[in-house]
Amino acid sequence: MAEYKRPKTKAEFDKNFKQKKPLMNDTEAYYEASRCLFCYDAPCIQACPTSIDIPLFIKQIHTDNITGASKTIFDSNWLGNACGVVCPTGVLCEGACVYNHQDVPPIQIGRLQNYATNKTIDAAKIIFKVGEANGKKIAIIGAGPAGIACACEARILGYDVDIYESKDKPSGLTVYGIAPYKITNEEVLKEVEYLQKQLNFNIKYNNAINSKKELAALEKDYDAIFVGVGLGATRHLGMDGEDKDGVVGAVEFIEELRMKQHEIKVPAKVVVLGGGNTAMDAASEAARMGARKIVLAYRNSKQKMGAYGFEYDLAISAGVDSLFNVTPIVITGNGKVEGVKFAKTEMVDGKLKANMNNTFVVRCDMVIKATGQAKQGHLYDMIDDLDIDNKTRIKINDEFQTSNPKYFAGGDAINGGAEVVNAAYDGKMAAQGIHNWLKNS
Amino acid sequence: MIDLSINFGGIKAPNPFWLASAPPTNSGYQIMKAFEAGWGGAVWKTLGVPVVNVSSRYGSVNYRNTKMMGFNNIELITDRPLADNLREIEEVKKYFPDHAVIASLMVESRAEWEQIIKDVENAGADGIELNFGCPHGMCERGMGSAVGQEPEVLKTIVEWVKEAANIPVITKLSPNISHITDPGLAAVQGGTDSISLINTIKSIVGIDLDSYAPYPIVDGKGSNGGYCGPAVKPIAMHMLKDLAQHPEISKVPLSGIGGIETWRDVVEFILLGATSVQVCTAVMHYGFGIVREMEAGLRQFMEEKNYTTIYDFAGKALPNVTEWKHLNLKHKVVAEINSDKCIGCDLCYIACDDGAHQAIALPEDVTNRIPSIIEENCVGCNLCSLVCPVEDCITMVKKDDGTEHVTWHERTLNDDVPTTFDDDRAGGKGHFVPKPSDALK
User: For A102, which of B343, B346, B349 is closest by C-beta distance?
Assistant: First the structure.
């Protein structure tokens, strides 16, 4: 039973969605930084998808060279500020901290990183310079983490950059899809604004690339194109009753929540379908929006969940109940959702099967489907000679170049949906790949 | 039954914990408060012709998360009229007749010495301490360390004082000198009853990077200060040892001063021959209450070692502090890494490889970060065990069987030491070092 009061104001919303990794103050940062051992060939660097020189930036924080620390961070990761708080640091850098082997709390690397970059962003310190113009132009599809990172790196290398973004805000999932207690909209946007101010890349908002004609125009006007699109809408389950009022996709639910915050209304009883991190987020968010009873339902066992353990724990601590080994059969209700009928699942010959003799109904007013998103296959299909794999992911080589040499890709488009930090890495590397390709051609 | 009381060159005190002449002993209020807290004696802030002080007086060296690891000051002797101090000495003695109240003195002419000695004796002081150490301000006027640095002058003044005084005299030495035994011997020859050391060390603790002035900054300028605190303890202990091992000087009791903060410091000073200790910086940092930790620790130590008084173990380490030439060249220790405790920071590896003898190897398997000792390369220098952040993870294990004992001194007598630049008897001949080009990878 969740105990959050429904937030009616921005202040109440912010209270219910209190930041999990709040900004450190100077004293906390000083003492935390002093704990770093400065390991040789540090495991935290190895665990970071963008290989930030973590011991170096921590030492820089400790010696009050905050600008230097931020430079170290952004040099490796253009979304260094957001990643400090949205990265699953417990399974990345902080998970690799050697202190864990001694049962000593690991260094709070994410919060230290966020501390440094926040200070630098707030002080509007100029730490990067656009590279000497080389006369070449790059088009980027999608202003998510991959696209922004690619744009920043390309600007440093001297390219003109235009980003085509279907929505009206930059940074994609970071602003539209991350749970609000991980990062605020303001913080996401100020980082992009900070980068844009010093690196001068254009973002064309509300400018989706949807047709072969538009792609042809890009191919004509630009020397290279980077595909940094995210995933699409929540996949249809093809279940009876899925069209009823009150059935929503998790990404759509989270996007509306992030944009409208306390202005959206979540009913008293909510069922969340799925066992991934998005399901955990949606369940936890429903609780924080004042839902009384939230049931997380996953078709397999707890051990088989895709979600990180800490994300599941967070949902449970928000008052979410969970059901395992159940699969939804039909969503009931007369026009509007009234419940979900589940069947128990069991392993038969190594396969998960629904047992139709063992069914039950969970009453609810809302169903959130966190059962996966569709890929942007329609876009990929329009690009000539583009190889995709059997999971609708764009295939790339070591230089992040696709089978159509003019196109490069990174982020969700190549990995099928991962962390912000992976997209940030891909975008940066792809810009370098583009540079290597263009300078040789 | 443990008895902590002492008779220090004729000055009796209930315990060896004394406050050094410094800001904590500026007034009767502070000294009474200290005695209440458990201190056995106090050396009053130096009396003389009152001074005028500057505002901004102390500077500090912070190390990692430790504030005031080193500390300096440019404060002079008392700036309060003598009559006020004398009245308060009398009052303190009334309340605490069994505690040691020692008047630190610093004046110029013989007549002034004779007068002020009479004054403090009349006030009831138990002893006199001659401040021949203050290395800032007062020395510019020919007092303090200006005297401590001229053994002949020091001896003359000690003689004046001894002629005039009816109470015991402690001579406090300055460490700002090449051989501490020179002023030490002069003090003994002048007839001092005891010696205390060290006073503070001439220092600049830091430079402000914006105003380019040394700390503490007085209106844009600074001056050298007197350095003290935990950082100076090793220097103080070495000088104490030099006096305690000197056949003439060691005939008088020695009061140890310099970075003492804990019971361990106290015991170490006593083991090197001190029979009272004086504390200032630790009190300036934490207040008088730290004496509780000192006393409890000292008592515990004495109980475990079966000592009744501090005289039972005073100087007990002195026979083991010898000249290098008498150390056993056949003694051999080698580092051993406890792989169960190792957390894989690899600081030992890089410290040894870059800073010592290339005697630690990383495992071939990069996922396992546990390093290993290359025993044939290990010279037993201790560096790895010193940098290791885990308690008892790297230990130095004795490898010789203890049957052989050869010193440099003995080898010199036997004409068995290297005498030419390429002598075959060079200790490092044949010892492994990597090829210079191995550094380029």
Answer: B343
Total structural domains within chain A:
3
B246 contacts B184 by C-beta, under 8 angstroms: yes
H, E, C per residue of B17-54: EEECCCHHHCCHHHHHHHHHHCCCEEEEEEECCCCCCC
Instruction: Return d(Cα B183, Cα B199) in angstroms, integer.
Output: 13
Residue ranges and CATH numbers for the domains of chain B are 6-317 (3.20.20.70), 324-439 (3.30.70.20)
pTM: 0.92
In whole angstroms, give the CA distance from residue B223 to residue B218. 9
Q: Does the distance separating the beta carbons of A62 and B64 come in below 8 Å?
A: yes
Q: Rounded to a whole number, what is the distance in Å from the CA of A105 to chain B's nearest CA? A: 13
Could you report the predicted ipTM of this complex, rounded to two decimals?
0.89
Under 8 Å between Cβ of A234 and A251 = yes
Query: Do A264 and A288 form a contact (C-beta atoms < 8 A)?
Result: no
Q: What are the φ/ψ torsions at residue A354 (nearest 5 degrees)? A: -80, 135
Question: Are residues A364 and A268 part of one domain?
Answer: yes
CATH code of the domain covering residue A116: 1.10.1060.10
> pLDDT tens digits for A358-392?
999 999 999 999 999 988 889 999 999 999 999 99
Of A31, A40, A43, which has the smallest distance from its Cβ to B65's Cβ?
A: A31
pLDDT of B363 higher than 90: yes
Q: What angle do CA A242, A245, A251 make, to 5 degrees?
A: 70
- pLDDT at res. A37: 97
Q: Which residues of A touch B (CB under 8 A)?
A: 30-31, 34-35, 37-41, 43, 62, 98-99, 101-102
User: Is the bond preceding residue B198 a cis peptide, omega within 30 degrees?
Assistant: yes
**Could you list the residue range(s) of the whole structural domain that residue A159 is in?**
137-232+374-440
